[in-house]
């Protein structure tokens, strides 16, 4: 997602995002001091990206509510592990499609990716309302929404560095908090509506919300600058960049464990903590509410302390909390765990792109490396939750919690390694 050149004025910039003919007329790349770092158009990009995150990673964060309903009602004859594949495929395709569509973003087709992604996400959710069998839900929610989310993800992340430099981490964190807000709104809306008007219309209402919010993304999205040249899909030299490869390992192992509570905390609360179902379904929104602050506050400090330093601290805190989960089996403890756990791991999602910038030799190679790092995160998301579901399927909630904690512990080791190899001086801003 290399930086792109300014077209001169707001009207022309908006036109470039519509017309493929105009993208070839872009002027040379602007110097860094020409980046606006504020203004109405710049902050509108944050609003549009917020809405995109709301309907991409936000659906992944909300999957725990769907998982509980599917396992108890719609797909009660399907194992938890198989049901979790729906959310995992969604998360994986989000990352994989983002990796593959990165060159299209750099080639000037960002607006088309936004439109196609919005259509697929909304269409997929409408199709979920018609589903009655496992394979239908997999096609609609796992594959269709996953592909659409991937088309939306890279433009929503890549547009922000073209408008911000000194406040890039904060702007990215504000945008990424959309997924956490969705994790509060969508599970509550889905559960309440499903109880009152049934599953089909509950999902249709959510689809209409997605349509309205993504319309804001389409209306506000403006490409400011175009890349001087198309980027590679893969950077072979990155394989020799030790800090970057350690960070990719961090992305994989962190995402193996990160979403396990999001998928299973509701079922854990009713099964182990004997929490009432009416209260248990609020655990996913509480996780997401904590994540809202976790994607904004650390990003504010990351502009001063360095994104890699901030991520290392937050992943370490998440791993400690995951081990504390081993001793939690009552309602007050679970609520406190959800608030704290939501806060710390959310930082990884919001600061991943900013950390890749720090670990890239130049902004010209950032798009390629971001795609590689996102793919590693997607593979972790694909693997983690089905494995956790298979462990629960054997009746071992202790095993699920250990699996989550161990994955985050390994992620902590790798991010610490990346930080030390990058700079051995503790006070360096990395």
From TrEMBL:
Keywords: Membrane, Transmembrane, Transmembrane helix. It is a multi-pass membrane protein. The chain crosses the membrane at residues 40-63, 83-102, 109-128, 134-157, 169-189, 201-221, 242-264, 279-297, 309-328, 334-359, 371-392, 398-421. One of its GO terms (cellular component) is membrane. GO terms for molecular function: transmembrane transporter activity. Residues 1-22 are annotated as: Disordered. Its main location: membrane. InterPro entries: MFS, MFS_trans_sf, Proton-linked_MCT. The keyword Ion transport does not apply. It is found in: Membrane. Belongs to the major facilitator superfamily. Monocarboxylate porter (TC 2.A.1.13) family. This is Major facilitator superfamily (MFS) profile domain-containing protein. It comes from Aspergillus cristatus (Chinese Fuzhuan brick tea-fermentation fungus).
């Amino acid at each position: 997602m290399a930086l792109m050149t300014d077209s001169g004025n707001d009207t022309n910039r908006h036109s470039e995002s519509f017309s493929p003919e105009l993208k070839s007329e872009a002027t040379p790349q602007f110097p860094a001091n020409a980046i606006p770092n504020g203004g109405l158009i710049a902050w509108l990009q944050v609003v549009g990206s917020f809405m995109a995150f709301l309907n991409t990673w936000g659906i992944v964060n909300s999957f725990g509510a769907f998982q509980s309903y599917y396992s108890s009602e719609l797909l009660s004859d399907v194992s938890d592990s198989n049901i979790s594949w729906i959310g995992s495929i969604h998360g994986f395709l989000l990352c994989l499609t983002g990796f593959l569509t990165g060159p299209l973003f750099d080639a000037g087709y960002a607006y088309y990716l936004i439109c196609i992604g919005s259509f697929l996400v909304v269409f997929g959710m409408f199709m979920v309302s018609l589903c009655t069998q496992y394979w239908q839900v997999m096609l609609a929610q796992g594959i269709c929404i996953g592909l659409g989310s991937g088309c939306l993800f890279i433009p929503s992340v890549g547009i922000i560095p073209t408008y911000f430099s000194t406040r890039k981490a904060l702007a990215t964190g504000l945008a990424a908090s959309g997924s956490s807000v969705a994790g509060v709104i969508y599970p509550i809306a889905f559960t309440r509506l499903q109880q009152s008007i049934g599953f089909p219309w509950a999902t249709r209402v959510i689809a209409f919300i997605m349509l309205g919010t993504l319309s804001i993304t389409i209306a506000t999205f403006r490409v400011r600058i175009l890349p001087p040249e198309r980027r590679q899909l893969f950077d072979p030299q990155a394989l020799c960049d030790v800090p970057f490869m350690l960070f990719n390992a961090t992305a994989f192992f962190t995402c193996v464990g990160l979403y396990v509570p999001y998928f299973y905390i509701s079922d854990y609360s009713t099964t182990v903590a004997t929490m009432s179902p009416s209260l248990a379904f609020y655990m996913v929104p509480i996780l997401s509410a904590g994540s809202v602050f976790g994607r904004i506050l650390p990003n504010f400090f990351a502009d001063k302390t360095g994104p890699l330093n901030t991520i290392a601290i937050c992943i370490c805190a998440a791993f400690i909390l995951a081990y504390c989960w081993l001793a939690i089996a009552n309602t007050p403890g679970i609520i406190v765990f959800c608030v704290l756990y939501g806060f710390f791991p959310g930082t990884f999602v919001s600061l991943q792109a900013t950390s890749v910038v720090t670990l890239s030799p130049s902004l010209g190679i950032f798009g390629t490396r971001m795609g590689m790092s996102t793919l590693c995160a997607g593979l972790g998301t694909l693997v983690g939750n089905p494995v956790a579901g298979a462990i629960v399927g054997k009746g071992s909630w202790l095993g699920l919690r250990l699996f989550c904690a161990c994955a985050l512990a390994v992620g902590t080791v790798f991010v610490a390694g990346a930080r030390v190899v990058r700079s051995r001086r503790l006070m360096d801003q990395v």
